[in-house]
Write a structure and sequence with these properties.
By secondary structure, the chain is of the alpha+beta class. It has helices at 42-49, 54-61, 70-77, 127-142, 156-164; strands spanning 22-25, 31-36, 84-90, 97-105, 111-118, 146-152, 168-171, 178-184. Strands 1-2-3-4-5-6-8-7 form an eight-stranded mixed β-sheet, sandwiched between helices.
């Protein structure tokens, strides 16, 4: 589970957040807008999580939660943009958040964990696949060498999606209910 670490001062080599705003196209031709989150997005993010399946909430937060709390929401929109980035995907027709992807890197910026969530009514449209590619491009640009994702063994869709994108699955040390998926990024 990706959890933001304490807020840090941004390093002088921080990539500008605005450069990671883009219109992305899925393999099926659906176009959506993605950009880094900001504190102003907190209410819209709360509304977004109301439309994420309960099972998907459990998979995203690796706990049986029924509602994403205020502290969790704040942590998803208040990031340092150096070690942690939270991306939001928007449907251009409605302006609503349809997916989120968070990347949390270690102190040395060599390894980072990724977590994705998507609205139930936007699943199976290639959005998660495309969003993972955007996060990987961002991580590569920061010099991060390895992406990781901890998945519940029950989350067959996410595990299959990540395997299709080149991630390697292995047992999660100390947690038989979870899988560790890793992707080595090329320079």
């Amino acid at each position: 589970m990706v959890e933001p670490v304490s807020e840090r001062a941004a390093a002088p080599h921080t990539l500008p957040a605005v450069s990671w705003s883009a219109d992305l196209t899925t393999r099926d031709g659906y176009v959506f807008h993605v950009r880094p989150a900001s504190p102003a997005n907190e209410p819209a993010l709360a509304e977004f999580f109301e439309h994420v399946d309960r099972e998907d909430l459990r998979f995203r937060f690796l706990s049986a939660i029924h509602k994403v709390g205020q502290d969790q929401l704040r942590a998803l929109v208040t990031v340092d943009h150096e070690h942690i980035e939270s991306f939001l995907a928007f449907d251009p027709a409605t302006g609503r958040i349809i997916a989120t992807a968070m990347l949390a890197a270690d102190e040395s910026l060599t390894r980072a964990e990724v977590a994705v969530a998507i609205r139930a009514d936007f699943k199976r449209r290639g959005i998660s696949w495309t969003l993972l590619d955007q996060v990987a491009a961002f991580a590569r640009a920061k010099g991060i060498a390895t992406l990781e994702s901890i998945e519940s063994r029950d989350n067959h869709q996410a595990i299959e999606l990540e395997r299709q994108r080149g991630w390697i699955a292995s047992a999660c040390p100390g947690d038989p209910a979870s899988m560790m998926l890793r992707m080595t990024l090329s320079a």
